[in-house]
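Lab notebook page, bench 4
Experiment: in silico fold of construct C2
Operator: M.H.
Input chain length: 381 residues
Purpose: comparison with the prior construct
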Amino acid sequence: MSDDLTLHAHLIGRQGSRADLNTPVLVLDRGALDRNIAAMAELAARHGVGLRPHAKTHKSVDIALRQIGAGALGVCCAKIGEAEVLCDGGITGILITSPVAAPRAIERLAALAARAVGLMAVVDHPAVARRIDAALATAGTTLDVIIDIDPGIARTGVASAEAAVALAETIAGLPNLNGRGVQFYCGSQQHIEDYAERRAAIVERTGYLKSVVAALTEAGFKPDIVTGSGTGTHRIDLDLGVFTELQTGSYVFMDKQYLDCDLTGDGSTPFETALGVDARVVSANHLGLVTIDAGFKSLSTDGGVAVVRRGAPETAFFAFMGAEHAALIAPGIGEQLIPGDPVTLTVPHCDPTVNLYDHYHVVEGDTLVAIWPVSARGRAR
């Protein structure tokens, strides 16, 4: 057997055991994780804003429990499958942030509403709201819902203030739905690297959000909850003061995409890099290039390429060489490293990279201290 627990459980607690992990392997620094969780919790509390972190990032019951233990209201999930898994793990206060529209998925949503404490879900269409209400009636339960507002990317959400009011009116007429507020997630703005440019974009979009909230309020549907934001814009959103809760996700790990962004306006990095992939050199037969055992199957490809964090020159250029391999390219690297040498990589995009692995290998320094399942891995439906 080559599963993670069979290969590595005996290494837990053994000093220096990280060096004996089979690679490639997803590694999580527990200390950095906990400090990141505490930092975001403290920041939100200081501004009087709730925190409902997005679990699409980590897909982990263990990490969600740590976030709630630090003061989070609950967590967000992108899909109902994620919400089912986290609910089974004891997580409460779950918000499903993508519309649930398929007939069987709506049945599952109603069944989950009957057992999940504090469950909420977004809606963005009157017909879907009516279908959900009917399923809830059959299940004998009710559900709090949030109106999803399109921030201008045409992915999900109502497309105008008038549509938001019309949907709120529909929800108010359905006996098994309780309208609670609105969601506004500016995904396109999260990774704008320059702080001033990102702030200007968010200020403009927040003006639109305010107009929607004003229209709902005037129509008698003042939102109790205004939820959204993300790791890239959380400080800007806190300054603007419109959100009642934040959905930040990647701050727990930090990936290359967010490390490339000025999150604070002064160039400082408010969160530590907690997540990485440990790999090994498997071939070193060229002066300026070595091959490592982490390719497309080990790292996401939607956020650029990984960067070296330790074990090789930080200036080494990473290049995918297929499903199983990548090259590290730097002058003389083929003489500096030999097959078997370990290398730690900062991942390009944490969410899809995590989805490639069954477990987190949790470390303190160079010692493996726990193995946590990626509880909702693959729950895309």
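Observations: DSSP finds twelve helices and 17 strands in the chain. The chain has a mean pLDDT of 97.
Next step: discuss at group meeting.
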